[in-house]
Amino acid sequence: EGDRGRNKCGGRSGDRLESRDLPPREKTEDRSSEMRTGLFGGTFNPVHNGHVAAMKAFKQVARLDRLTVMPTGTPPHKRFERSVSDADRLEMLKLAVGNIGEVSDYEMKKEGKSYTFETLEYLKSVFPSDELFLYMGSDMLLGFETVWRRTDEIMKLCTIVALSRTGDDLEKLENCAEHLRRDFGAKIEVFRIEPVVVSSSQIRALISEGKDVSDLVPKAVGEYIKEKGLYRGGENGDRCFGV
Ligand code: ATP
């Protein structure tokens, strides 16, 4: 919808790869009205140790005062009979996030598909004086220019913080970030953090094969999955990330 351009991300520029530090926090009289607020969105079907590690790293590198974790809603047409419910995804996420951040059901409650630019606008309306930061794993950053809606608005509203999901794609990420900075004036930072290499689809596949996933998800999430017998019926993880 107007954003589809040529995706230069992934091209090689030979730029030196370096993590950047975000600018130092400005001193303010009243910190409560000027906080650094981070948005970590995802399908979380289910939440796993990679998400939790990335949330902690995001808080640290962006020096966040608060972290909002936002599970996507499931559009009605994506609802499969065997799918895990929104309530299950939300509950598992709350168990995993604990006091790392606040889980918001804003997108789950919203009518229709949710887009990140709308969620950022919502956060801006709730916290008008805050500086907003948006987390993206590699896959999200590399697909940003071609897949996401209203990238112009997103780039205006926040600083993007990207972390590698695999550890071997940092050069690609940094080249992509450099292109978005140069051509669109995006505020975007790529950080080197040792990733926990795991995905929700891998977990769904393992469970459907009857394999143990307790090393890949937080303990309470593993117990919840077992108790409720989630994901046993096969691939029920239709992606529904309204980027
Ligand atoms: P699926 O396998 O179903 O596609 P996923 O594991 O990619 O799911 P999402 O809920 O889609 O999980 O991811 C939410 C956010 O977390 C995205 O920005 C994604 O890039 C990031 N992310 C997912 N897994 C990891 C990981 N292991 N390390 C760092 N970031 C991750």
Task: Explain what this protein looks like in three dimensions.
By secondary structure, this protein is α/β, with parallel strands linked by helices. It is 37% helix and 14% strand. It has helices at residues 49-61, 86-97, 106-109, 116-126, 138-147, 151-157, 170-184, 200-208, 219-228, and strands at residues 36-42, 66-71, 102-103, 131-137, 158-163, 187-191. Strands 3-2-1-4-5-6 form a six-stranded parallel β-sheet, with helices on both faces. α2 links the parallel β2 (66-71) and β3 (102-103). α4 runs parallel beside α6 and α5 (138-147) runs parallel beside α7 (170-184). The longest helix is centred in the last third of the chain and has 15 residues, at 170-184. It starts with 35 loop residues before the first strand and ends in a 15-residue tail after the last helix. Residues 1-6, 11-21, 27-31 and 236-242 have low confidence and may be disordered. The structure holds adenosine-5'-triphosphate. Adenosine-5'-triphosphate is lined by residues 42-45, 50-51, 54, 135-137, 139-140, 163, 165, 195-201, 237, 239, 241.
Oligomeric assembly: single chain
What integer value in Å does the Rg equal?
18 Å
Number of strands: 6
Percent of residues in helices: 25-40%
Helix/sheet category: alpha/beta
Tell me, briefly, the overall form: globular
Q: Which stretches are low in confidence, meaning pLDDT under 50 for 5 or more residues running?
A: 1-6, 11-21, 27-31, 236-242
Largest sheet: 6 strands, parallel
Strand order of the largest sheet: 3-2-1-4-5-6
User: Span from first to last CA?
Assistant: 12 Å
